[in-house]
Target: RNase H type-1 domain-containing protein
Amino acid sequence: MGPLISKIHPSANLDLDCCVREMVNSDDSWNLDLFRAWVPEVIINRIVIIPPPHPNFGSDRIIWTQSASGVFSVRSAYWYLKENSWNPQEDYWKIVWKYRGPQRVRVFLWLAFNQKLLTNSERARRGIYHCSSCSICGHDIEDLVHVLRDCPSAQDVWRLDYSLMWSCLFGLVTWRIWKNRNLFIFQHISWTATEVVKVSCCWGRHYTYHTGDHFKSKQGSSLMINSADNWVFLFTDGAVARDSGYAATGRVAQDRDGNWIVGFNRFLGMCSPFEAKVWAILDGILILLNKGYKRITIMTDNLEVAQILSDMDLEDSGITVLRRTLRILHLEGEWRIKHIPRNQNLVADRLAKL
Model:
């Protein structure tokens, strides 16, 4: 947004000696009428999402804008420097990054997307093999697409039905097709399509069992059932409209049995999705504390928010709304925060998008 003075019309009657504290009402809210005399409404919508200064929450400070927490990191600096050279159309890299399966399969997918697997055509190109045709079906060119998709042996695998979640099984099946091809070439062993699928499903079941993915759909409900009676559960979400940039929040509070305590939404103004989600938590906490609830479990579907709020070392973050939320959590009552799947947070999500 830049310095406010750059947004003020030259003809405005500006008091250059005015302090920020003079722009705050007695109830610790912004005096927006004073701002409206100087800046346009689009700037007002950026100001309203910034908490006014308060002596209990420390001084304002310069922050690193390239990270959600406002804290500098080498990772965020690297992404900032590489942003212009990154092709946003190459969304297929997200398949590798977000793949929920064994690490060796993730490495295999990375090699496949980089065209680094030694198919016969690639071996012939490098001069380490005399023939570029497929060793299984005899096709003229055995490239990566042929091995993993077009070869009749691969097509037989893809035609079969699968019982596990596809997000995990896709990588495993692709990997086993490649392994089956190597077994045929180097050891003269050939697996049937059914055997490839069975082994892939076995790997998938073991992986999901040991990583706990089979419990995730019940995580939120089991947490509520196993909690004491005096704990309340605050489901929160924040949303930002893509076209306008305006943000809103939604919150729903329930008791251990799922009974409704309170639900509400609020228009924020213009901010980032991260700030909107933190605002949703802050507003929800303040309302529940005012109602006398002291033991609060915060449920959010944003993993970054959950991780940052769980790290009390970030209490001195430069982002005001985050710093205020952290200090209230530190000083008031008992709390815990849980990351939940998006499909368990649909009510708060709908409220935020009203």
User: Anything to note?
Assistant: Residues 213-221 have pLDDT under 50 and may be disordered. Residues 160 and 194 are 8 Å apart (CA to CA). The chain has three domains: 4-48, 93-211, 219-352. The radius of gyration is 27 Å.
